[in-house]
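Ticket #344: bound-state structure for nicotinamide-adenine-dinucleotide.
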Amino acid sequence: MKIAFFDTKPYDKPAFDKFGAEYGVDFKYYETKLNEDTVGLAEGADAVCVFVNDTVNAAVIDRLCEMGVRVVALRCAGFNNVDMKYAYGKIHVLRVPAYSPYAVAEHTMALLLTSIRRIHKAFIRTRDYNFSLAGMTGFDLHGKTVGVVGTGRIGRVFIDICRGFGMKVLAYDKFPAKDLDDGDTVKYVELDELFEKSDIISLHCPLTEETYHLIDGDSLAKCKRGVVLLNTSRGALVDAEALLAGIKSRQVGAACLDVYEEESDFFFEDYSGHILDDDTLARLISMPNVIVTSHQAFLTEEALYNIAETTVLNLMGFFENGQCPNELCYRCGSAEDCKDGKCF
Ligand code: NAD
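RESOLUTION: The complex was predicted; output attached.
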């Protein structure tokens, strides 16, 4: 089985080589992202293996079909970069629904603690033998209210972590999980109430038409002054311009972003020594109360091996048995995992 692997990074290879060798799957690695210009590299492959910033739009799908490529194997959970509606009936789309919710949830807490206890500032100061504490005052998490939007795999782990810190949790989900609401430490509320009452807001829902710019000027205006915003989900959940305005007006006290609306132009690449051609990102990064990591929340040893193993098993399942439980299907309902394990 031949797989064209796009947007390859050095940290991808060890785990994919290991499971590829074990199951007889031959990965041809390309550093370039998949898009209309690069899709030709998949000629002769049975499937393409793609990540969050590869483009699987109508033109790419048409070309893959022309070349006889039958499968798009996402090595991630989110699939907002795939035109699912267009893919239906043409090409099969497999994904890795879960690989380590702990990796993302723990990174979210790492960002929060770094930000509110000024660890990023202290690290730089003490390296310069500057032991002053001026401007380093933080605040306790204990007793604070965190609003968690999206209480799926990652949201739940993040809620557990927050409870460990003695925080109160206000949760919002389109499909609330009844077992989670104990009426005390975790309470489901409407989105507006979450905005109004949370000291910290963390986003863990998928990017859909409904959640696009969930955080915009209007929602930020409803928030407590000085709210801390955490986004480790998808960039376009937040209107970056509105966030910048909120930072400037002090309505937003701090922001921790592992994802950014226009990240596909920059994230995962080394632009040091270049002029950054995105004024909003550059301005956000320049703020003392904004921390940006470049979509690295997933990046743990455990997650990388889980991703590789599930991707290889997805491909084996599909090509050997004609079935894959992690197939995404438009027909089975709004691009959820296919109930049949084979959508057409
Ligand atoms: P999940 O499917 O387990 O949970 C998502 C939750 O969001 C579900 O409970 C769902 O009901 C809820 N939801 C759906 N639509 C909603 C809406 N309109 N409003 C509120 N809630 C809604 O997914 P997960 O594994 O917890 O992952 C969450 C997100 O994290 C993914 O969609 C992905 O974008 C992101 N992610 C980021 C990284 C990273 O490295 N930064 C890694 C993995 C996943």
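RESOLUTION NOTES: The longest helix spans residues 301-321.
TICKET STATUS: resolved
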